[in-house]
Every structure is written in structure tokens, then in C-alpha cells.
Design a protein that fits this description.
There is one protein chain. The protein is mainly α. It is about 65% helix and about 5% strand. The protein binds calcium ion (CA) (2 copies). The site of one calcium ion (CA) has 8 residues, from loops.
């Protein structure tokens, strides 16, 4: 358990580092593709957001949101990811939309850093962004 400080530029430089971002997203994709069929289904994608905790922090949804409301929300998120609307999210769709989301978070953070408490083994993208920045500072 640690606390990381994240601001818009931290997130932005993470996304801008294409090789690193692709690696992180591909790793996340692989771990989420539970049945290893190369695409994410609705329920698989839902786990992304449950694990990232983006819903609570960035979509302005109360934690006490009724399950049916949450399902609607996750459905609308899925539709955003599923660009070609074929009912599954492939790697490219996942990466493109994650990039948009991360940049939207970066815009939202601006130059007002936030503190995030994270588990050490957290795969949270925001922690990875912070780690990347830390590694650059320390050389
Ligand atoms: Ca799958
Ligand atoms: Ca698709």
C-alpha cells in the first residue's frame, strides 16, 4: 500500500510513451481476456472498470448506484469501446478508447495533483503512469 501523486502531465506522458502504453494496455487486455479468445466481452470489459475504479472517481457516479443503473452505465461504456459494434472489443478498440479515457483524465486533473492510495501490486494505469514518471526522474 502506497500513495502516489498524479497530475495531468503524469498521465499524459504515460499515454505519450507509445511503447510503454501499448505494453501496459496489452497486458491489461491479456489479463482481462479470461477465456483467451482475443476479444473482450461485456462482462470481461466490466471487470476493467471495476478494477480501475474509474467509475467511482471519474464518471461522477455515486458508489451506491443501483445495480441496474450500473449495468446501463457499463453497457454505454461498452458501446463506446466497441467502435465497429460487432459485440466484442478487440485489442485495438480497447487501446484507442483507453487512450481517450486516460487523456480525458489528464485534462480533468490539469495541474492539480491528486493523491491516490494504491496497493503495491496494483495494475492500475494511474499507478503505472506515476511509476513511469518516477523512473524517469530517478534516471
Ligand atoms: Ca474474451
Ligand atoms: Ca468491436
Amino acid at each position: 500500500m502506497g500513495v502516489v501523486i498524479i497530475d495531468g502531465s503524469t498521465v499524459r506522458s504515460f499515454v505519450d510513451d507509445e511503447a510503454q502504453f501499448k505494453k501496459s494496455v496489452d497486458e491489461a487486455f491479456a489479463s482481462l481476456d479470461l477465456n483467451n479468445d482475443g476479444v473482450l466481452s461485456r462482462s470481461e470489459l466490466r471487470r476493467v472498470f471495476e478494477s480501475l475504479r474509474l467509475i467511482e472517481t471519474h464518471f461522477g457516479v455515486d458508489v451506491a448506484t443501483p445495480p441496474e443503473e450500473l449495468t446501463k452505465l457499463y453497457d454505454s461504456i461498452f458501446d463506446k469501446f466497441d467502435c465497429d459494434q460487432n459485440g466484442t472489443v478487440d485489442k485495438e478498440e480497447f487501446r484507442n478508447e483507453m487512450k481517450k479515457i486516460m487523456l480525458a483524465i489528464a485534462d480533468g486533473l490539469g495541474s492539480n495533483p491528486i493523491q491516490m492510495a494504491l496497493e503495491d501490486d496494483d495494475k492500475n494505469f494511474l499507478k503505472q503512469a506515476a511509476d513511469l514518471e518516477a523512473s524517469k526522474i530517478s534516471g
